Every structure is written in C-alpha cells, then in structure tokens.
What we know:
- With 329 residues, the protein is α+β, with helices and mostly antiparallel strands.
- The chain has helices spanning 50-64, 72-77, 87-102, 112-117, 131-139, 165-182, 278-291, 293-302, and strands at residues 4-7, 13-14, 22-32, 35-43, 82-84, 146-149, 152-155, 188-192, 195-199, 209-214, 224-230, 233-239, 244-247, 250-253, 256-257, 262-263, 268-275, 307-313, 319-323.
- Helices cover 29% and strands 30% of the residues.
- Strands 2-3-4-8-9-12-17-18-19 form a nine-stranded antiparallel β-sheet. Strands 1-10-11 form a three-stranded antiparallel β-sheet, with no helix packed on it. A three-stranded antiparallel β-sheet has the order 5-7-6.
- Helix 3 (87-102) runs parallel beside helix 7, helix 6 (165-182) packs antiparallel against helix 7 and helix 7 packs across helix 8.
- Mean pLDDT is 87; it is low at 3-16 and 242-250.
Amino acid sequence: xxxxxxxxxxxxxxxxxxxxxxxxxxxxxxxxxxxxxxxxxxxxxxxxxxxxxxxxxxxxxxxxxxxxxxxxxxxxxxxxxxxxxxxxxxxxxxxxxxxxxxxxxxxxxxxxxxxxxxxxxxxxxxxxxxxxxxxxxxxxxxxxxxxxxxxxxxxxxxxxxxxxxxxxxxxxxxxxxxxxxxxxxxxxxxxxxxxxxxxxxxxxxxxxxxxxxxxxxxxxxxxxxxxxxxxxxxxxxxxxxxxxxxxxxxxxxxxxxxxxxxxxxxxxxxxxxxxxxxxxxxxxxxxxxxxxxxxxxxxxxxxxxxxxxxxxxxxxxxxxxxxxxxxxx
Length: 329
C-alpha cells in the first residue's frame, strides 16, 4: 500500500487562451492490480473509455502479475532456464536490474522465494520460516543470477523466481500516461494504489495538482502529514506500516532484506519519491526504504534527478520526518 492520498477538484474550465473552448473533467476509476485506481483527464469531450483502460490492465497483468497463473512472468518463474520477454516485462526487468546495480542489491526483484517463505506471496500463511527455509530461499535469490540475451530472460538457477510488484504499478501508471499522451490529452492525473503521475493543471483555475502525504498510521483515514503541489512528473511511496503481519509482540514487514532473508527492520517508516516518471519513482522508493536514512541521503546526493521525503523513528522511537532539499519545490 502507498502512503499517498490525492486531492483534485472536478469541474469545467474555459481556457483563457481559447475562449469558448470548454474543457471538462472526465474520471475513470475502478479496481485493478489488487488495488484501486483513478484516472482524471480534461478534454472537450470524452476520448478515453473505461473499457480501453480495462483492456490496458488486462494486457499488463498478462505480462507482469504473479497472481495470474497464465502470465508471462509466471511462465518465466516456472521455467527451468528462462523465457522470452514481451515489451512490458523487458522494460520492467531492465529498469529493475539497473536499480539493483545502483542500490548495490538493496532493490531486488528475485526475492519471490523469500516472499513466499514468509507468507506474503500468492499463497498466504502465518508459519514462520526456519533458518534452513530462509537459507534455501536465499540460495534461490539474487539478481546476479539473471541474464538478458536479446529478448530472452535467462536464469542461471532453476529455482530462481522474480516478483516485479515493487515497480510494476509505477510502470502501469507510465504506460497509461503514454496512452493518454497519444490521445492528445494535455492535462491529467493518474493514480494506481497511490502511485501517481501528473501532467498539466487542475481545472478550473489552472492550478497545480495537490498531493497529500498521509501520516504513518494503520488507519485507512489517517491525517495528512504534508501537502505538496505537483506541476508534472511522478510521485510514489513505499511504507511498511500498512502491509505487515503480527508475530508475537512485533509486526513483520512485507518488505524483505535480501542480505538477511528476513523482513526489513530499520528506522524508516515510509519513503515518498518524486521523479520524472512513475516506474523510476516506484523502484527507487523501495531501494531507499531498504537503505536506512544515512545511506539513502548519500544515494540521493549521487542521483540528483530523485527527491525523497522520509517518515522515520529516531533513536528514541519518536516519529520524525525529513526530506531532500528540492522535494517540496
């Protein structure tokens, strides 16, 4: 789950540069990829249908969803040596491997065996894995065991399986944005499970889109921590306070530490990332939350096209927040 809420007013707008040209707000919303989505665009008439958006989600799920038995990613996972990728899987895997390399392995799509072992996968369970279970899952993980040759995605170990959920929703947002661009839409906001991409302005008033960032809470109606305006680009969030399972007196995060093979346990509660596109923001927010505050800021200094906002607990257990210099600009 993301830690983002969106706020946008839906109303008609008369473009001051084109008197008499009336832009109306059209909204398409529904449920896909295990979450809700909302697409709002401004046009003279309805040019995008809910049916066309549904077809896009079906196309994406057929490639990227581990929850669809017939999907391309599951065909790869069930193969001995690998499988031929389509356009969607190819783009997502290539970007994932780039982020894996840049993050020194913190972001890793090959952790599906670990996710399954801890009961966060397709088959949910509450059984805590043994040390030998974790060791076995780790032996089947590691993006260094993935190779790309042309359109072929090759695994060097048959038990290796990938899960792109940490970046696929961002890619889905970008893919729908590309679809709207081709339709000539110049003002829109796309949101899938809190992963957002914006182009143009909210109408009326030609104002920037306003995005609210929730306080860290397990309550679905949590108060807002911050509100920012977004003129264009993407904003996504990763957190461990919504998706978890109880384990005695503690809560186990759904985010995995690839080094220990256990649920991530550091001081960061959530990370919100601004980037040019949603796939980048989505992938890097998972990388940053796995690094911890100090390493995350070192990483941001080297990757100046990214900006991030953190909610975290200090050494005394007090919830605080901080952000890179340009995040709220």
